[in-house]
Design goal:
Elements: E1 10-18, E2 24-32, H1 33-38, E3 44-45, E4 53-56, E5 67-70, H2 73-78, H3 83-87
Antiparallel strand pairs: 1-2, 1-3, 4-5
């Protein structure tokens, strides 16, 4: 039996926008993972806990959809979108990552 995987199809990507006084400033934008990959975005983080994520399922085979999952197991334990958080029965509360991506 295959192990169940945490799959999130949306994440935040780092973008740049023009500042009022000139120059650029970074900001995070929520995007679908497949769209972010097609837009050649390079910096990703979880949209809920701001922790680091890794991209999986990008083989391009028919029927596969790219997704992200937490790189840290502890982030998945306390992220509202994490599989282990949703399965927990101990009454834990969601929190931001201990090592958020800035």
């Amino acid at each position: 039996m295959a192990a169940e995987r945490e799959k999130m199809y949306e994440c935040e990507v780092k973008r740049r926008r023009v500042k009022v006084g000139g120059g650029y400033e970074p900001f995070w934008k929520v995007k679908n993972v497949a769209v972010a990959m097609s837009d050649s975005d390079t910096e990703y983080r979880c949209k809920d806990c701001q922790g680091p994520v890794k991209i999986l399922g990008r083989t391009g085979r028919p029927g596969t959809v790219p997704y992200v999952e937490h790189t840290s197991a502890i982030d998945g334990e306390f992220c509202i979108n994490g599989m282990n958080f949703r399965k927990a029965t101990d009454g834990r509360e969601a929190r931001l990552s201990e090592h958020p991506v800035r």
